[in-house]
Amino acid sequence: MKYILSLAFVFTCLFTSCKKRSDSENQTDTKLSYEVVFREKAAGVYEKWSTGEDSFEYFYEYTDRGRGPKFSEKITLQNGVIASQTISGVNYRKVNIEEKFSSNPSTVSWSNAKGDGESGYNASSLYFRFDGTPAIYEILAQNLLASNNHKVKLYPEGEASLLKKYNLTLKNGASVELIAVKGLDMNPKYIWLQSNEMIGKIDGNLHVIRSDFKSERLNMKKLQDSIEIDYLKQEANRLTHKISQTLVIQNVNVFTESGGLLFNQDVVVENNVIKNIYPFSKSKTLNKEAQVIDGSGKTLLPGMYDMHTHNNNSRGLLHIAGGITSVRDLANNKQLKNLSNQFNTNEIIGPRIVTFAGIIDGSGPYANQRNVVSSLEEGLKEVQVYKDLGYQQIKLYSSIKPEWVKPLADKSHDLGMRVSGHIPAYMTATQAINQGYNEIQHINMVFLNFLSDTIDTRTPLRHIMPAEHGAHLDLQSKEYIDFVNLLKDKNIVIDPTVALFENMYISKVGEVSPTYKPIYSRLPVMNQRGFYSGGLPKSGYQIERYAQSLDKMLEVINDFYKQGIQIVPGTDGLPGFLYHRELEMYAKAGISNAEVLLLATIKSAELTETSKDYGSIKVGKKADLILIDGNPLEDISNIRRVELTMKDGNLFYAKELYESLGIKHFK
After folding, report:
1. In angstroms, rounded to a whole number, what is the distance separating the alpha carbons of residues 289 and 220?
2. Packed helices 577-589 and 498-506: angle between N→C axes, nearest 10 degrees
3. pLDDT tens digit string along 144-187?
4. Collapsed DSSP state (helix, strand, coil) of residue 65
5. Are 68 and 61 in contact (CB under 8 A)?
6. Using CA atoms, how far apart are residues 566 and 550, in angstroms rounded to an integer?
7. Which residue in 101, 94, 36 sits closest to 70, CA to CA?
């Protein structure tokens, strides 16, 4: 690889005419500071400074409701690539992190969350850490721009490539560059540069902006959003296949509304409506103009429902690839209807959002930050605002004052809106239900009901306490039986998101999380590495205890289901793949595969009042369909083997969708 500018030289460009510094000048500390903004609130800081020629130190920290990383990092460069690196601190969930990389003329070696390793030295390869500060993005950007083919091989594995470079002018007149990088994550990573120096990195709700560009942050975000949307529109055009006026899925096994299979059927679709379903016959003459899809040995299911999502423009494609065509959005910004319209028109590939839930939280250090109110009066006004926007549900969060719950619920119910959410701090689920909740998000909130109303559930204690004590819940106790009766009497819906807790409670640092083990090797390098972080910190007796608490959560889910309490499958995480795991966990809990699939389809359609058109395969309904390679009634994990998805008259091949994200298909 060609020699590229070191960061020390880059730092100088900010303050001089870019002449080479003397050795003494290179020893001078010139600290650059960046603000970290999370969900539009100042949340932390990123700092970097030179400690010598080609040697640098970094500090990075931000907070999110008691969580958040804190890292110190040291890097030495040689010809622009990392020669040595150390990282220490805690990750987002406060798990201790120690990572090292070193090199010599013949070998490189590393120690990270995955373990120790080494490889032959390659002067043009770059070590990409598992977790740490944003420093690596700046170094990678410089290497990509300097590379002849705009690609960089990564240690321990992987390759990053420069998708595109945009030359832009900000409102303050500054000329800057925005580069899009492929190969790290499922979606392009965007890095802002000026004079080869990183001035910003905007990634969803997390923004890292150099202090002298703080006033330009929202403008930068607007420009990046426009570029991202243009890219996604191009991908939608490339990956969408229009369905012929008549389409026949031939010789396929059809999942029925009663949970069985009709074997060897032909399903005829005309103009996005299921026109006919009848037994397959080799002698049958088909319309010569019909589009025919061979369904032999495959299962046809209705498009599934993810009942707990938080959507953005880049997540929709993963839902469709995973066979999810309808979702509930359970907290987002107030511009969500715009995104929904883009999904519905296929301007951007994504599911239809069938339920919009507006979030309301109280102020404080652990506030959700999406929509915070400081008084009950403000909260009541927000309920009306969401109703006027066409939202059907209000989600209350952990910092809501307990005495606000009933008036907020009453107002919501008066407007015909459901109420759900986290259980506010210093309140129990029983109290929340009696004051108006229709639904509880997350199975840990159920378990907290049996611990205490003195737990500050705004903090990570809402996860830790059920992990520590959940295993002891007695399903024969009067307290538990009374709670179950309350759920039944009030028709309360439970949204468990139990796969999240499997990842928190079971995964260990340095080992692939069991939640993602079936698919991790198919994913890009950064996604893979995130699965080694270990969930909640745990050691000693906690390892077995947390596993027992997860088992108890599954036992409770099964008991709820058997007693007629409605369970809705949702993720609150990685679209598609985590949903498949959620369904597997219900089967592991003891719910039959057929019943699990009914929860994912017609029962969710009924709850969201969309069953007239969606949720089952019947003549006259919309052709919202997914084709599975195999039979998920025999093995629920076959739900991962989606071959194609049909939505709103469009056909999507999962292999093509996954490949566009750098994901290997299951085959």
Report:
1. 50
2. 90
3. 999 999 999 999 888 999 999 999 999 999 999 999 999 999 99
4. coil
5. yes
6. 20
7. 94
